[in-house]
Specification:
Blueprint: H1 2-22, H2 25-44, H3 57-90, H4 94-104, H5 110-122, H6 125-131
Helix pairs in contact: 1-3, 1-5, 2-3, 3-4, 4-5
Length: about 150
């Protein structure tokens, strides 16, 4: 049983690391937003603008929206992976951890490896018992959380 606790501890640390790595694409979103604001301001203040057609700031606005979407997706996935690591360390939220293990498989190659190992550990009957709150004789929940 202590082997299961050790595996859950290692997996929770790896989920924290993947959460940090998954936030890096947020920088691309911020770059897109800065470019969109720059293009919007430059095009709106440019001389010789045609009077017909779409407004010039629309071009910059499209970049801002794309950047905002990229930023929100990266931030959401990072927060969810962090929460999954927290749940693994506290042995709570079995279904959430299982779903996030499947989601992390989308991040090739590190996320795929982590997701597969997390699924292997979470599908053990002894780990399911830990998440259900059953306390076997040699299992103490706070043994490795100090």
């Amino acid at each position: 049983m202590n082997k299961d606790l050790e595996h859950l501890k290692i997996l929770s640390i790896c989920h924290y690391i993947l959460a940090g790595l998954s936030i890096f694409p947020m920088l691309y979103g911020i770059i897109y937003m800065v470019m969109g604001i720059f293009f919007g301001v430059m095009i709106a203040n440019a001389p010789n603008q045609p009077k017909d057609g779409p407004p010039p700031a629309l071009f910059g606005g499209i970049f801002v929206v794309i950047g905002l979407v990229i930023t929100l997706i990266a931030l959401t996935i990072g927060i969810l992976l962090y929460k999954s690591g927290r749940n693994l360390s506290k042995q709570t939220g079995y279904t959430f951890c299982l779903v996030m293990a499947c989601v992390s498989c989308l991040f090739m190659p590190l996320g795929t490896i982590l997701g597969i190992f997390t699924l292997i550990v979470l599908l053990r009957d002894s780990v399911k018992a830990i998440f259900n709150g059953q306390n076997p004789a040699n299992y103490t929940p706070q043994s490795w959380q100090q």
